[in-house]
Amino acid sequence: MATAATALPSELSLTRRQTCTSPQPRKSWAQATSAEKQSYLNAVLCLATKPSKLSVPTHSTLYDDFGYVHAQLSNPQKIHFEPSFLPWHRYFLQVYESALHSCGYTGIAMYWDWVADSSAPAQAAVFDPVLGFGGNGNDTTDNGGLPRIQNGPLRNLRPTYWNREVQPHWLSRDSAPGYPEFGVIEMFGYNYNQQVVDEVMAETVYDDFRRQLESRPHAAVHGGVGGGRGDMGLQDASPNDPLFFLHHAQVDRLWWIWQQQDPSTRTNAYNGFREDGQGPAATLDDVLPMLGLAPDGVVRDYMDVKGGTLCYTY
């Protein structure tokens, strides 16, 4: 029988906790020890050796499952441009953490604090060529015109999907360049600096906050890191790039900070309309689909990081 440390995502416990007495603190990649970083990266590589949890004939690994599920739920949109964007990705990140545990990682999810790195994103610790996720990609003759990352322990990862199409390729990035002579920071860093985040955090209504966070800094990081030909730049299969999960842990962290500004009101604040504003009103009973990667969740279980099925903090 699988232990708590090695449970596969489909075995993830969804039992509601009565209390959360010892929440685990998530830390930034820059604050992690070398041993913690190495363990995390080893587990990421291990995912590409684990069998798929899905009945999808076009791929066979647990690593590909995450890009596939995200892509399927992005067309038509079920996880972006609607209120469930934040709780769905919070749950998705929990499922990923469980998958890393099945590969021997004993730590907790980490985040990339791209606000702190916004003035020089390319120098961020997450792009370290030894204890990081590698740097930008370069065009090669063996990657179908996509810019394969050239260094780092993940350079030989080979995702199956490009957007929603079956197109095996080496992990790719096409980061937006900077133009110092014009004061333009690489990777669109000016779109997720402290001023921008402060403006987002000033929103007082959940769905207004969610829209600003999703469309401004969240989108800028995806586009800035991935570009037009990199895995992170394509919304559908962006989990192909393992940096996706550190990015979304930071998004989750900002949501948590916003909630903590008025916890009695904001912990369960949830409003708006589903299907990009065209569908029914959102409720805490809305389903968070996982397509077999893990049991479907319910929004109310993912509003409080120290309640429902969760027990962590920042």
UniProtKB/TrEMBL annotation:
It comes from the Eukaryota. Residues 80-97, 241-252 form the Tyrosinase copper-binding domain. Keywords: Copper, Metal-binding. Pfam families: Tyrosinase. The keyword Metal-binding applies. Gene3D superfamilies: Di-copper center containing domain from catechol oxidase. InterPro entries: Di-copper_centre_dom_sf (IPR008922), Tyrosinase/Hemocyanin (IPR050316), Tyrosinase_Cu-bd (IPR002227). One of its GO terms (molecular function) is metal ion binding. PANTHER family: TYROSINASE FAMILY MEMBER, TYROSINASE-LIKE PROTEIN TYR-1-RELATED. This is Tyrosinase copper-binding domain-containing protein. It comes from Cercophora newfieldiana.
